[in-house]
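Work Package 3 (structural annotation) set out to generate three-dimensional models for the target panel prioritized at the project kickoff. During this period the team completed the workflow that converts sequence records into discrete structure tokens, so that structures can be stored uniformly alongside our sequence database. As a representative example, we reproduce one entry of 256 residues exactly as it appears in the project archive.
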Amino acid sequence: MKIKKAFAYFISFFSLAVMFSVCYFLSYRNALKKFNENAVERNKDLILSLEQNGFLQIDKEGTSTNIAQNVSNGQTGNSTANMNNSDAVNNANNLDSEDNSVPVDTVDEAIILPSTQYILQTYDLTTGNMAEEELKVPSYLVGLTRIQVIEYLHNYMNDLTFDEFKNGLTSFELLTFSEKKVTLRKTYNKDLVENQFFLKSQNGKIVVYYGDQKTVYEYTEVTVEHLTQYEQLKLEEGIFVKDEEELYSILENYSS
């Protein structure tokens, strides 16, 4: 009698445990779905706000049919460098075939979610080293389609930060795209950073910029009024300078 009673208690407890587990799973899945939907909506609002304020340019219609998979900033020698190192890149690009990622040139309407696995690869052309890390999905990528991600990479390369310019970023490309996994790769080649400085006249004086032509290195007191008209015109357009030795040689010549 006691055994039957204990068995009945066990069956009741087991049934309750199963029901609780099923309810918890369904509740969790529903909550996760709502979280992803809300996150996508919030990021769409953020992207729209950035576009309206001119901080981000996204092709919302996605009508472009000739968007390059590899986005480059157009520096001289990029194509040659990438071709010479293509074998090393291809060897490092053996992706997991079971992750349901799709080729970049495949058209679909998938978007990046907060739960998407985000992989960032960093490839150094000068050393041949490839690094890969899994990071949290940046908020500015959540909600973007494949076309919009490629457009973002294009804009990123057209407006490099000083650090990226100094480190020789030559391309930022999309390798795989799906709602489960997105893989991006940055390729660097410091050998292509030929000019470290850029001289330009401003308000009658010479201003020294870094090679990115945006970040100020030094506001000099060297005036241009005593220079020839040809030299003044050159400084109005801007002069690239290879290194510090050439920079101070030019400044000394202009100030004498």
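The radius of gyration is 28 Å.
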